[in-house]
Amino acid sequence: MRIAIDAMGGDHGPAMTVAGALLAAKEWSDVEIVLVGDEGKITGHLSGGTLPANVKILHAADVIAADDEPARAVRRKKDASMVVAGRLIREGEADAMISAGNTGALMATGLLVVGRIDGIERPALAPMLPTMDGSGFLALDLGANMDSTPDNLLQYAIMGSIYRNKVNGLPKPRVGLLNVGTEAGKGNELTKAAYPLLEQAPIHFVGNVEAREVLHGNCDVLVCDGFAGNILLKSMEGTAEFVFKALKTEFTRSFMSKLAAAILKPGLSAFKKKMDYSEHGAAPLLGINGLMLKCHGPSDANAFKNAVRQARIALSNGLVGAISTETSRKRDG
């Protein structure tokens, strides 16, 4: 299998993308990695200037910046590393691509360059978010689409369920609908209309889930529109930041509190790591006719290596084909 990496994307590209690619190439000899980007800058981060046999470089002279207007940049910057990686998927020269670059541009690349799976109206960005038991849950959509229809939520539920099955090995993923109450009649017009569709879908639907419950692991897939999902994500980020800043303040008030902090530090560090959603890997862009994974902007080498692992598992288990088959079955039925 061949996986393209946007070597120039992210806060630390190409240093971290190259380092991560080398780690992945060493770990999995059945994977060929294509580093897409400025060849001179990429080779500058190679130890001794040599590449393993299963790593290639494809030169791309341009880069899509974080502040570029996504769709315009994708249309105009034909030789940008992200766009070139997307073309590799479209032309069958790569099976997957990974990028830590501009999220909006990656979505535009998926739509304008790679294309959607037939029958999928809107692709969804689906990161894994943490739970107290460490298992996490897949949430979609968390910002790719601000406005969704009941049919969109149905497609998100099906794609999310297939992903958790194919990539995480869950035989019967529990799918919940983000709502303001657990009763079936609760919610706005969107969730009220989506609820019966999810009940009838080929998934294990567990009903409505309130935001305060999601960290307790009561579902494996959480379905929502991008507006509510992004608010959920930002609220979780803000709360975590507040809690840890407050703890730091309290633990530095006195000698005794500093002593207590020293004793508790290993446990607090482990807890912080467990609750950091960036530790849960790259987010797939589901609904695109090819595997696309979005890493966090500040991803390090290990994060890129783990993204390759995710891609390898998804490809081995036919994730995109399974989504396409289920979509066709629903459309024909």
From TrEMBL:
Its main location: cytoplasm. It comes from the Bacteria. Pathway: Lipid metabolism; phospholipid metabolism. It catalyses: a fatty acyl-[ACP] + phosphate = an acyl phosphate + holo-[ACP]. It is an enzyme of class 2 (transferase). It is found in: Cytoplasm. It holds the Pfam family FA_synthesis. Keywords: Acyltransferase, Cytoplasm, Lipid biosynthesis, Lipid metabolism, Phospholipid biosynthesis, Phospholipid metabolism, Transferase. Its EC number is 2.3.1.274. One of its GO terms (molecular function) is phosphate:acyl-[acyl carrier protein] acyltransferase activity. Homodimer. Probably interacts with PlsY. Belongs to the PlsX family. PANTHER family: FATTY ACID/PHOSPHOLIPID SYNTHESIS PROTEIN PLSX (PTHR30100), PHOSPHATE ACYLTRANSFERASE (PTHR30100:SF1). Catalyzes the reversible formation of acyl-phosphate (acyl-PO(4)) from acyl-[acyl-carrier-protein] (acyl-ACP). This enzyme utilizes acyl-ACP as fatty acyl donor, but not acyl-CoA. This is Phosphate acyltransferase. It comes from Paenibacillus hodogayensis.
